[in-house]
Amino acid sequence: MQTPPTTVPGIFPPGLPIDLVKCWSSLFNVEGCVLEIAKSIFSGKFENVEAACCKAFSTLDANCWPHMFPLNPFFPPLLKDSCARIVPNSPTHN
């Protein structure tokens, strides 16, 4: 018997690909990170994104980005650049 994929009620609808849940999970592991990113998406301001959240974001596979931010493809590179200033030694994705 196969175990159903883990979902977060209200955020990840059932049946969502497990990869997307894995993409988001590293951000959910940092307290307040998803909220910081959501605020940045709507305000266009990145100064409230803390270093721990930037570290988590910088470790995301770039292949996650189009699935995580389908309505704003320019957001991940902007946040990545902002995070590079906050966490200078964070890995970059091409």
From TrEMBL:
Locate the coiled-coil region(s) and give their ranges.
Answer: none
GO biological process terms held by the UniProt record: double fertilization forming a zygote and endosperm; regulation of double fertilization forming a zygote and endosperm; regulation of protein localization to cell surface
Recorded GO CC terms: extracellular region; vesicle
Source organism's superkingdom?
A: Eukaryota
Keywords of this entry:
Signal
Transmembrane spans: none
Which residue range or ranges hold the Prolamin-like domain? 22-83
**Protein name per UniProt:** Prolamin-like domain
Species source reads: Arabidopsis thaliana x Arabidopsis arenosa
